[in-house]
Design goal:
244 residues, alpha/beta, Rossmann fold, seven-stranded parallel β-sheet, two-stranded antiparallel sheet, 9 helices, globular
Length: 244
């Protein structure tokens, strides 16, 4: 299995490398507010060398290392695993990331199996790309991902979140996801905590045929780790390249 990560430590600003100056979690926060969308250095030859590509997209202020447990679980796959670093802050962050990842998806041969695994913001990005005609995604795994803004119940806290921060910048994209026609051939798995404090009741509803799996009490970020074995099994069972 080939693993490709674009880590914070390789980013340069004004001639200075921020790698090594801060712990990795602080680098992610730093990049969220001051960084730009990273180039994803994946050679076309590498993309063509495998029959399965797995893309792991983190959430707000996240970083590629969060996927380490899942990467370990996927070691039996003969696949290229790509874990990009995204800048998730800013009104146009999603649009920039969608353009970069859309360009990457177009480099993947049509007969190559593509699985997108996204946590929260990264799941919204994946769902957005799935609804684009030019995108090539065969399996979509949504972890703690909100895909609905209509017919949801807001409490005071959820109402505050609705108008603040990263969510306010993706509200329009979520509305597009709700109204879009999902490709018939895309398999969708949605794992979440039904009592997620970041997502109002009804927020996990999506307009596609999907397999839901709940992890009660795990929380928004905790579900990412608690679902690792289940997600890895689902991906492997649906892969054409898993070792017998």
């Amino acid at each position: 299995m080939e693993v490709v990560q674009k880590l914070c430590s390789s980013a340069w600003y004004g001639g200075w490398s921020i790698g090594g100056l801060f712990p990795r979690s602080l680098r992610a926060i730093y990049l969220r507010f001051f960084g730009t969308v990273h180039e994803i250095p994946v050679a076309k030859e590498l993309l063509k060398s495998k029959e399965h590509v797995v893309i792991l997209a983190h959430g707000v202020a996240g970083f590629p290392e969060l996927w380490t447990p899942l990467v370990d679980e996927l070691k039996l796959l003969d696949a290229v695993v790509i874990a990009p670093q995204f800048t998730t802050g800013g009104a146009d962050a999603m649009a920039k990331a969608a353009q970069k990842m859309g360009d990457l998806l177009q480099q993947i041969p049509k007969d190559t199996q593509v699985t997108w695994v996204g946590h929260s913001w990264g799941g919204i990005l994946g769902a957005h790309l799935v609804t684009q005609e030019s995108a090539h995604i065969d399996q979509l795994v949504l972890i703690s991902t909100r895909c609905a803004v209509k017919n949801v119940r807001y409490n005071v806290w959820h109402g505050f979140l609705r108008d603040q921060g990263a969510f306010s910048s993706v509200k329009g994209i979520i509305e597009q996801i709700e109204d879009a026609k999902w490709p018939d051939g895309t398999k969708v798995l949605s794992v979440y905590d039904p009592y997620d404090w970041l997502v109002p009741e009804g927020g996990f509803a999506i307009g596609a045929k999907c397999k839901p799996k709940t992890f009660e009490g795990c929380g928004h970020l905790g579900t990412l780790f608690s679902s690792t074995a289940f997600v890895a099994t689902w991906i492997t069972e649906n892969s054409q390249t898993a070792a017998p």
